[in-house]
Design a protein that fits this description.
With 400 residues, the protein is of the alpha/beta class. The chain is 52% helix and 11% strand. The strands form three sheets. Strands 6-5-3-7-8 form a five-stranded mixed β-sheet, sandwiched between helices. The chain has a two-stranded antiparallel sheet with strand order 1-2. It has a two-stranded parallel sheet with strand order 4-9. Helix 3 packs across helix 12 and helix 4 crosses helix 5. The protein starts with a strand and ends with a helix.
Length: 400
């Protein structure tokens, strides 16, 4: 009965339509665990779209062209909408447990890179210039296991890289953090519980800049000494896995620490002679010397830990992968889009670290995440790469 202000309309339905082969009861479509149910894209297709974008560097507009060549009308707007829909559904549940797994690892390599977000405002509500280098950043934290192999990784979008922002990302982490010379990490070490390890490659870069175009001098001699340290370390890295962990750490430290101490003593003597003579070293040479001496403890700290080495190349390699992808899709429109992009890049990077096919993992996630309740941390943790079996995706592929 439908009532209005002046009259009522009564509709009576007497005919019942039913299938003659059924028992006569009305059956609704059961809800599935597939988050993409009732959309035009299945889990494998969306997983492949994400893998193509964040692993192969193929932006959505190029994928749209490829679909069109196959006679499929899958527009980049549809792909973007589905990525945002799925990302917003799972990011609040899966990202926290991913960060917890990263924090369980003994070492984190960290690095950051600028990115462009079109619709982004500062704290005062003023719109940031998209082309500004301080518009926003992606900060990567690469977890490293006891054997020195990369594991769970997480990339976080931030509209700044101020000291407190960096410190917040490592709040509560008790392990080792290896980074470049950004001041935010020094601040974070003083206000957090982790131990900071420096990067010898960044220290050497100062020396390379100072020795450019020169054939002799302090900077040239520094470069030779850095080369000797890296050469000996490389010889020991080749022996990783062939010795016990304690033997490896003791042997590497016995071989490398004298080289560091000799370089430190020599540079201190160079500084002393310059002060006594009143002559100053060339500015870039002074910077290279100060960088090494001021960070000597951080640069040699890796010698006491099996999982660490002298450089932060792990993080830089992952950040470089993001930059390659980012150079293809150029920007994110909104802050939410940047969050979702960084989140899916985290999952794909973690899959690569564990030797898992990212497409199969993401398809499994999309097939099963609808059954997990919000806030059920352990159930979401079981959906992380390396913690779930992908048998259902194998069966799904057989049906295609």
């Amino acid at each position: 009965v439908v009532k209005t202000t002046s009259y009522s309309i009564v509709r009576r339905i007497t005919d019942v339509y039913e299938c003659p082969r059924c028992d006569g009861s009305v059956k609704g479509t059961p809800k599935t665990d597939n988050i993409l149910e009732n959309t035009v894209v299945d889990p494998l297709m969306l997983a492949d779209i994400l893998n193509s974008k964040f692993n192969m560097g193929v932006p959505l507009y190029r994928q749209e062209r490829l679909f069109k060549e196959q006679g499929l009308k899958i527009t980049r707007h549809l792909m973007s909408a589905l990525i945002m829909y799925v990302g917003k559904r799972i990011i609040d549940n899966l990202e926290p447990v991913l960060e917890e797994e990263v924090f369980k690892m003994p070492l984190i390599n960290a690095d950051e890179t600028p990115m462009k977000v079109i619709r982004l405002c500062d704290e005062d509500g003023n719109r940031k210039a998209p082309d500004s280098r301080d518009n926003s950043f992606i900060i990567g934290r690469i977890g490293v296991d006891d054997n020195g192999s990369p594991g769970y990784s997480i990339f976080t979008f931030s509209d700044n890289r101020r000291n407190q922002t960096i410190a917040d990302l490592f709040d509560g982490y008790p392990g080792l953090v290896q980074t470049d010379g950004l001041s935010g990490y020094t601040f974070a070490e003083k206000n957090c519980s982790f131990t900071h390890i420096g990067c010898l490659v960044h220290a050497r870069r100062k020396c390379i800049e100072a020795s450019e175009g020169r054939t002799k001098g302090v900077a040239v001699e520094m470069k030779k000494r850095y080369a000797r340290i890296f050469h000996v370390e490389g010889e020991w890295e080749d022996r990783r896995g062939t010795l016990g962990k304690e033997d490896f750490v003791k042997g590497r430290k016995a071989a490398l620490l004298p080289l560091f101490e000799d370089m430190k003593s020599w540079l201190e003597e160079v500084v002393r002679q310059a002060e006594e003579s009143g002559a100053e070293n060339e500015r870039r040479t002074s910077v290279a010397i100060s960088y090494f001496l001021d960070r000597y403890d951080e640069l040699t700290r890796f010698l006491d830990h099996y999982c660490a080495n002298s450089n932060n190349n792990r993080a830089e390699q992952f950040i470089r992968k993001w930059i390659i992808d980012y150079n293809n899709f150029l920007f994110c429109i909104t802050e939410t889009g940047a969050d979702v992009s960084a989140f899916f890049f985290s999952l794909i990077a973690s899959c690569r670290n564990f030797g898992i096919n990212p497409t199969d993992y993401l398809a499994h996630l999309f097939l099963n995440c609808n059954r997990i309740k919000n806030g059920d941390r352990e159930a979401w943790r079981a959906m992380l790469p390396g913690k779930c079996k992908l048998d259902d995706v194998v069966e799904l592929r057989k049906k295609i």
